[in-house]
Amino acid sequence: MSNSRFTALDAARNRVTVSVIKHSEKISEFFGSNVFNKNAMREYLPEDVFTSLMNSIERGEKLDMGIADQVEAGMKNWAIAKGATHYTHWFQPLTGATAEKHDSFFHLSSDGRAMEAFSGSALVQQEPDASSFPNGGIRNTFEARGYTAWDPSSPAFLYESTAGITLCIPTIFVSYTGESLDYKAPLLKSLAYVEKAAVEVCHYFDRNITKVYPTLGVEQEYFLVDAALFNERPDLMMSGRTLIGHGSARGQQLEDHYFGSIPERVQAFMVDLENEAHKLGIPLKTRHNEVAPAQFECAPLFEEINLAVDHNQLLMDIMEKVGRRHNFRVLLHEKPFAGINGSGKHNNWSLATNTGKNLLSPSKNPKSNLQFLTFFVNTIKAFHVHGDLVRASIASASNDHRLGANEAPPAIMSAFLGSQLSSVLDEIEARKFENSESDTKALMKLGVEKLPEIMLDNTDRNRTSPFAFTGNKFELRAVGSSANSASAMTVLNTIVGAQLVEFKKEVDGLLAAGESKEAAIMKVIHRYIIESKAIRFEGNGYSDEWVEEAARRGLPNVKTTPHALDALVTEKAVKLFTQAGVYSERELHARHEIQLEAYTKKIQIEGRILGDMALTQIIPAAIRYQTEVLSNIQMQKNIGLPESAVAAQTGLVNNISTRVNTISGMVHDMVEARKKANNLSDAREMAIAYCEEVKPYFDQIRYEIDKLEQVIDDRYWPLPKYRELLFVK
Ligand code: ADP
Ligand code: MG
After folding, report:
1. What average pLDDT score do residues 489-501 get?
2. Is 331 helix (H, G, I), strand (E, B) or coil?
3. 159 φψ region: left (φ > 0), alpha (ψ -120 to 50), beta (else)
4. CB 301 near ligand 1, within 6 Å
5. Cα gap 332→292, rounded to integer Å
6. CA 326, 328, 333, 335: dihedral to nearest 10 degrees?
7. What pLDDT is attached to residue 259?
8. % residues pLDDT > 70 (the chain)
């Protein structure tokens, strides 16, 4: 009987590097060529329309209906000139993937002539037949309509594929009654909220600041696996991760992969990916190997958050597409392989102003350092008060495997500041406030004048922290590699916004009571430093000591998604999000439910596929090999050899029998546990049952199978092994 694993291995070993079509040596010559950007708009729009559109983009407003027809005409002409035949509203429903529904530009005019058209109203708003997107009960069937509307702050782009070119218009997705059904609408609301709050606080320091916008640079980690090998792994295909597989003798222990030389075939993929990304205006900048074998990372230059989120979503999409071109499959799952590093999506976040300043970047000027300290401490304080929400925002079935798995930040939320900034905060904290004037002076000296010297060389890095300050930005490392960053960024913007509102209220109160501005600000900062101390941790976040220490500090350590999601619907969360205008209470409950359901479905799929593989691939292979061993025993006995001659074979037969029985028993029990869980009517209870009653079988079944992998003749083993998945390329 042939084993298709070996056919796949042959294919993988004999790959030739696919050559990459270069557009030009100079990126600047084709960067953004597939984007309806400022240049394209200037060329294709009448001047007054262009100016008006630019204004609404600057102000972050929806497209003015008055110019919609002209904008769409320009956009269409541009797209058609570049070969597009279809257009689509491109949106980010809560499934996690992006969605699109293609319509052709082709129309029949009233007299039956064929023409290319689409109308302004189609640009501004569409009604996708989308009743099957997750909505958490928001859309009952009688109001099953969902609307998509263009958000002009994210430019339209052309998506090229072998099947043709499509004009994609980035949109938000809302229900008939106005509730958000996607990731983007709340993100935009959170942006408006934090912008306003931050501008008001900036006015203590600089009246010229009229706009503040959060920035985001997303480092994206991923694995590459040969397509032929991938196709032999039902678990990778169905769930994105290997549910079974014994560790490779060589994993990452040699530490030779990180920043090592990039294999040629992989490099071709990366160059191709960068080309595609650059055409779409995604400013990819760095590429390198990651810690685990077959693991890589790419990172763009940072951008305004809204665009950065769209670009990351688009990037994940083209990674998949370009990967296939190179006979790779891109694994974006957070933990595709047990025992080696998982993948994250580090979200580098900061706040920038219209005056070109990074509010989280200390400078040589003491006056603007008070501004730095203000935003820095308020961010820490927000993270302390709402760490549970940040945890909820990164929760998913797949990220659960990565968090706290010893090579990723734990599920405990803490912030790393670096030793120098920590000591500045410690010194401020240690000062007592009695006589305002002189205390303020002393504190200003500590907190503000000392900063410039120390910040110039902030190379302090701590890879084990979920939220690390890295010189001029915070890096949220707990985000999962497959996640939509909007979820975490919406929370971060909102909690920092709320914190800034609170800060302003307190400072204004002190100002009204006659305090000087500096004294008032320092006083509040001083208190915030004390109040938020528990969230600061500089040590090794992977250690067991930290788990204990965090418990002593009262920091939550919520390891699994069904429980982490509780934070979305607490009284505290409802108050925060409704006041900020980011989510209504109904939307929060809907999201809570959607995420619980998504969790349950993911675990359900994993359970099914694992059971399937165990029963239809592993056990048959084991039995086949066992039969061969048995006939060997029989033959030896036939020629009169004693029992002792076949001791090893007999032991093997027993071993296989025991494990096969255990596996089949556990698969049966797992199915029963699933049936029980399926009978629960409450989404949270069902998710918890899947987490606590079904999922534990996965590791137990896997343990037995991985043991079998070590004793069964390699020729019989049906699945590409870890060493093959990780090292053949
Ligand atoms: P690392 O050492 O973590 O790899 P880099 O300095 O290479 O960090 O930056 C990582 C990411 O952080 C990049 O995507 C970069 O664009 C982004 N980044 C840098 N400055 C900012 C900022 N002010 N706001 C948001 N992201 C930023
Ligand atoms: Mg980083």
Report:
1. 98
2. strand
3. beta
4. yes
5. 14
6. -130
7. 59
8. 88
Beta-strand runs (E) in 176-236: 212-226
| Residue 40 in tokens | 């394209």
Residue 564 β-bridge partners: none
| Least confident stretch, 61-75, 302-316, 390-404, 497-511 | 61-75
Assess whether the C-beta atom of 220 lies below 6 angstroms from ligand 1.
no
Residue corresponding to tokens 């915030």: 528
Please give the DSSP secondary-structure letter assigned to residue 694: I
Task: Count the Cβ atoms, other than its own, within 10 Å of residue 62.
Answer: 17
pLDDT score, position 98:
81
Q: How far apart are the first and last CA of the chain?
A: 26
Sign of the CA dihedral running 59, 60, 63, 65: negative
Atom 2 in ligand 1: residue holding the nearest Cα: 470
Structural tokens at position 218:
């997303």
Nearest residue (CA) to ligand 1, atom 11: 217
CA dihedral for 613, 617, 621, 623, sign (positive or negative): positive
Contact at 8 Å (CB) between 342 and 405?
A: yes
* Dist CA 3 CA 517 (whole Å): 76
Q: Is 547 exposed, middle or buried (0-12, 13-18, 19+ CB in 10 A)?
A: middle
pLDDT band, very low/low/confident/very high, at 114 (cuts 50, 70, 90): low
Q: Distance between CA atoms of 516 and 17, rounded to whole angstroms?
A: 67
> What is each CA distance from 401 to 67, 386, 586, in whole angstroms?
49, 23, 30
- Residue 550 region by backbone torsions, left for phi larger than 0, else alpha for psi between -120 and 50, else beta: alpha
**pLDDT (average), residues 574-595:** 96
Q: Give the DSSP H or E segment for 373.
A: helix 366-385
Using the atom order of ligand 1, give the atom closest to the CA of residue 219.
Answer: 14
Pairing relationship of beta strands 345-353 and 328-331 according to DSSP bridges:
unpaired
Judged by phi (left if over 0) then psi (alpha if -120 to 50, else beta), residue 346 lies in: beta
Neighbours of 327 (CB within 10 A): 19
CB distance 473 to ligand 1 below 6 Å: yes
Partners of residue 88 on adjacent β-strands: 102, 168
The model's pLDDT over 281-306, given as tens digits with 9 standing for 90+, comes to 999 998 888 878 899 999 999 999 99
Measured from the CB, is residue 215 less than 6 Å from ligand 1?
A: yes
Q: How far apart are CA 92 and CA 70, in angstroms?
A: 26
> Helix 571-580 crosses helix 585-613 at what angle (to 10 degrees)?
120
The closest-lying atom of ligand 1 relative to the alpha carbon of residue 349 is 25
pTM of the predicted model as reported, rounded to 2 decimal places: 0.93
Q: What is the mean pLDDT of the chain?
A: 89
**Domains in the chain, start-ordered, CATH in brackets?**
31-181 (3.10.20.70), 192-597 (3.30.590.10), 598-727 (1.20.120.1560)
Mark 178-194 as b/e (b = at least 16 C-beta within 10 Å): ebbbbbbbbbbbbbebb
CB-CB contact of 283 with 308 (8 Å): no
Which tokens in the block code for residue 651? 């032991």
Nearest to residue 503, comparing CAs of 480, 478, 479, 532? 532
Task: Give 109 Cα–ligand 1 centroid separation in angstroms.
Answer: 51
Q: What is the full DSSP assignment across 288-330?
A: EE-SSTTEEEEEEPPEEHHHHHHHHHHHHHHHHHHHHHTTEEE
Q: Which two tokens stand for residue 268?
A: 């071709």
Q: Report d(CA 641, CA 266) in Å as an integer.
A: 54
User: Is the model more confident about 567 or about 169?
Assistant: 567
CB 345 within 8 A of CB 220: yes
* Ligand 1 within 6 A of CB of 300: yes
Residue 14 confidence (pLDDT) above 80: yes
Nearest partner of 487 among 497, 495, 479, judged by Cα: 479
Note the pLDDT tens digit of each residue in 39-71.
Answer: 999 999 999 999 988 888 877 666 777 888 888
